Amino acid sequence: MGLFSLKETCSCCGKTTGFNKFKCKNGYLCPDCFKAARLKGLVINPFNTTGEELKIKLEKFNSKMDNFKETAKVGNYISFSDITNEVYVPNMKSEHRFIKYSDILDFELIEDGETIVTKGGLGRAVAGGVLFGGVGAIVGGVTGKKKSKHTVKSVKIKITTNDIKDPIVFITLLQKETKKDSLIYKNSAKTAQEILSRLKVVTSKDYSTKPEEVGQAKISVADELIKLKTLLDEGILTQEEFNKQKEKLLN
């Protein structure tokens, strides 16, 4: 038995691995388990990860995915669930993440390693046109102290979560040098605005009240309407989105 054996048993699912097997800490993984792990962004270290550990991770991920009810999605970058009150961020370079709305502490737009706009300044940026320039591009150097660049190498959204072990989640929108007047950059800018706006909306809500305590909630409908009106005025919510949320509250 060994690397070239056809009779090895997968340490994760128990099936025969066949020839195209992959090493793990306590034996080998079959191609199906290895592929499933890669598709879910689960990191497999052949020296530290056992088949049993991978099996638990896969079951945990599948359970979360089954419970996650997508209500909105921005490309393949991020999905939102207003039913489970969480976001799902796929990331092929690391483990995919499920993040509760209430666990999102902060988020920011980063261009070439420099923060362009943060959660606190998003409303003003969108309303004032700071997030986008005349050609529909993300403006570098909001303060105006730096000269405007004609190209950009990376555009990311950084989400800070209430997870002490792994607090940072990156959403990469662009990772190659691109001209700011190009269609690729403009699409990245549009995607960035949509993601940031949705993050602003979901983090503006109060999730401290448990479902069974809804009837005892201290926040009134009037307070919620005021919040929604503020988001509308700041340009974060469209009129259609505002009307939809308003109708839900009043009903």
Tags for this model:
SHOCT domain-containing protein; 3 domains; alpha+beta; SHOCT; 4-stranded antiparallel beta sheet
Structural class: alpha+beta
Q: Mean of the pLDDT scores?
A: 79
Largest sheet: 4 strands, antiparallel
Number of domains: 3
Principal-axes geometry comes out as globular
**What is the H-and-E element order?**
EEHHEEEEEEHEEEEHHH
In angstroms, what is the radius of gyration? 22 Å
Which spans have pLDDT < 50 for at least 5 consecutive residues? Answer: 126-130, 132-146, 211-218
Instruction: Tell me which oligomeric state these chains represent.
Output: single chain
Task: Determine the strand fraction and express it as a percent band.
Answer: 15-25%
Spatial sequence of strands, sheet with the most strands: 3-4-5-6
Tell me the total number of β-strands: 12
Question: Helical content, roughly?
Answer: 25-40%
Count of helical segments?
6
Gap from first CA to last CA: 66 Å
Q: Concise description?
A:
It comes from Clostridium thermobutyricum DSM 4928. The chain is of the alpha+beta class. Helix content is 31%, strand content 21%.
Describe this structure in words.
This is SHOCT domain-containing protein. Pfam families: SHOCT. InterPro entries: SHOCT (IPR018649). Residues 223-250 form the SHOCT domain. It is built from six helices and twelve strands. The protein has helices spanning 31-39, 51-67, 122-128, 183-203, 221-233, 239-250, and strands at 22-24, 27-29, 72-74, 78-81, 86-89, 97-100, 104-111, 114-118, 151-152, 155-161, 168-174, 178-179. It starts with 21 loop residues before the first strand and ends with a helix. The radius of gyration is 22 Å and the shape is globular. The strands form four sheets. A four-stranded antiparallel β-sheet has the order 3-4-5-6, covered by helices on one side. It has three domains: 1-67, no CATH class; 101-193, no CATH class; 211-250. Helix content is 31%, strand content 21%. Helix 5 packs antiparallel against helix 6 (239-250).
